[in-house]
Amino acid sequence: MTVQRTCLLLLGTLTLASCGQQAGMPAASAPTTDTAPAAATPTNLDSAQLAALRARIAQMQSLQADVQAGRVPAPVDDAGKAIDLNQLILDLQADLREGLSPRPLPAAQPGAGLSAQAAPYALSTYTTIAATNTFRSRYWTLRGAFPRFNWGNDGCSGPAGYTGWSDEFFWPCVQHDFGYRNARFYPSRMNEADRHWIDGQFKQHMQAVCDTLGWRKPFCYVAAQAFYTAVYLRGGSSYY
């Protein structure tokens, strides 16, 4: 479309599209990640994600104490196998350390071989959508506001032993595909550190799904770790 329109899109409290631009044009000022720290160098996870991660750790530690005291039975997976709560807690604590690590801001300008016009929207618009915690509820609004991004996806196929979680993790998988497929518009992001940042966001978005599943949480967290490990180790060919 070439018709003038007024568009306003909020991610949390952030404005992604500016008013009075032509349809499909990049926003005049791009947002930062939802609830991102105000520091000049943000951390790998935003403040809301860090708070949720700390809550998961505390909850699993409490569950482990209850199991050890005999107050509740040990949680099991769908095959009846007991879940290693100690390893699960160690994995979540490793996520917290990684999430607290400073994340250097990439260069805003396009790199060699890519003109400024080739990138469909500002880099910060891409990173906001890749990281937002409200991707599912705003998906169609985002697609309408930023049509020149690549919105294709492969759905969600789980690693061996965890394929039953593909339905629960569908939307984190779609968001992960968005992160991978649009990173190539920004040469400064074509590196393993940025690929693994997208993988880390994927894990947090899966764990947020797990947070809604009641007594299934421990096994869901284990499944999320398996999905994450699969893309971390074997996702390079899809990213570059």
TrEMBL record:
The keyword Signal applies. The keyword Signal applies. PROSITE patterns: PROKAR_LIPOPROTEIN. Gene3D superfamilies: Phospholipase A2 domain. It holds the Pfam family Phospholip_A2_3. It comes from the Bacteria. GO terms for molecular function: phospholipase A2 activity. Residues 1-23 form the signal peptide. Keywords: Signal. GO terms for biological process: arachidonate secretion; phospholipid metabolic process. This is Phospholipase. The lineage of its organism: Bacteria, Thermotogati, Deinococcota, Deinococci, Deinococcales.
